[in-house]
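Researcher: Can you fold this with zinc ion in place?
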Amino acid sequence: MENSCRLCNSDNIVLLRHGVRDNSKIDVFKCKNCGLEFLSQTFQADKDFYSKGRMHSTYNVENWFKSTYADDFRRAEFLKNVLKNKNVLDFGTGNGGFLIQAGKYANNICGCDLDESLDEHYKKYDLNVKHNLSELGNISFDVITMFHVLEHIDNPELILEKLKEFLNYSGQLIIEVPNSEDALLTLYKSKAFEKFTYWSCHLYAYNCDNIKILLKKSGYKVKNIKFIQRYPYTNHVGWMKDKTGGGHKKYTCNKAINYVYEKFLQCAKKTDTILVTAVPI
Ligand SMILES: [Zn+2]
């Protein structure tokens, strides 16, 4: 049993569930004070897991690259005014799809990722990706992005402080993470989705309030939080009706209904994703 919250140190924590989708021995805890959800520390991640590409070892890199195109495109289009003529670092760049999309607007863009198994892929698409922040040298950036990376990091405060050293005084840190207040969990209370979403790689689940606490502790001030719904309402229909994902492929989505549905989720702060803009203080 964990004794206290790793973010706010409150001892008001509860056991949320036994087991995650790929490991029945890992427990999930929730802080009743700040709402942070976190995995039990008894689980020790394989230190080579990310550097040897084991997170994506079961699927083809090219297919993975194609599958993230819509997200990479959405992110670059939404951020194009922020990225325009700027020096950008994408931390935890994965297959590098964002580097290609954002490269249309940025002055310079490079990535950082532990994954050495993607070196051939990076070479093929002429992407500048380092495996460690120390390889970047004496350089600073106007924008640093992290898309679905923060929740994988065991000591987020340490990494965020380190990234701050690479950020200009007037620079911006952009973080996208899954929202722990996702409607499937908090509104529909889908047991099937709950069983699916908790995963040994996601060490923490943040919401719009506790991510502010983390950023403040790490030397940043949050400027803006945008609520984004990546999956359409048909995905929710699938989870509720069939108790599985993929509803957005199975059921026909009405764009007008989806537009209104997303607005509703945004107002309720129950979208599946949050996008945070923070500045160094
Ligand atoms: Zn807490």
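Model: Folded with zinc ion in place. The radius of gyration is 19 Å.
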